[in-house]
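Researcher: Please predict.
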Amino acid sequence: WDTREFQWALEASHHFARAGMRDEAVNAVVSGAESALTRGAPHEARRALESIRVTYPRDLPPRLHLLLARATLLCGEYAATLDSLAGWEPSSLNGSEQALAAQLRAEALHRGRLADDRTISEAAKVARRLAEEARDEESLVRALQIEAEVAADLGLVEPLEEIRDAAREASRASRNSECLALSRMTQGYCEWVSGDFEAAAEIFSNTAALFEELSLHEDYRRVLNGLGMSYTALGRFSEAEHAFQRALVIAQRLGNPLAVSNVWSNLASLYHDMGRFQDAAHGYRKAINTSGSSTVRFIAEVYADIARLSIELGNFSEAERCCTASLAAAERSGL
């Protein structure tokens, strides 16, 4: 990432602030943060936005708060995303800003498992409705993805079919490359959940190339993760490993602990299926050790996987320990 554009924006903001040009100072930081987020540097964007918020604690534009919410979301700080959305009272929001705020809220609730599935589902539906009313394509397709993931968590088949149809319609209607890629990713996810792994792999593979070309790093990581899971289900293990390894590099560069842990967990599961038990154990350990403030639901699932591996290896004391840890985390998460 060439940081010069970002640094120029910060320097301009500093000079504007010293000259008493408040609006210009804020706008320069917003411009720099947008550049940083586009280029996969959410931590840098977050620091810049939080710094200007300290300098000017009141009457900041909604766009700044929404960018800060997006930055914290990409950093994996989901509770901070909700704080960014709840900690300000803009005098007015246009339709697209309302849709974006609702979409960020729904995604933070879902990724961080900060509410029960029904609450998250309702938040995603609100985000979708607002996006449709505002005719905001990006917020709409991102809300569809959240709806699809929540429907899968709840085991609901009919909503997934409707969401897949809506994503197809969005891809047909859109001339925006980002929205086209996002809607295709949602279609691929719906195919994967329905068990059509061949179709999912084909869609994910094609969509990965689009995300890479657009430099949408977090979406690129997510679709590579889906591609790896599809290849795993198809028994195409070497291709799955390659996809997961690429996803891991991106997750580590973005600095999202939950994303890193998730990829390690998927790699470990792949190695388990391949009979590479030592690599599987290493992967699960990495998933636990890098999880940071990951959700207890994720921790519960990883410990359950470690317990299963330990039983197969005859390490029953380790299996018992991991079962206890998994049950404790599951109880805290409501699973």
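Model: The chain has a mean pLDDT of 89.
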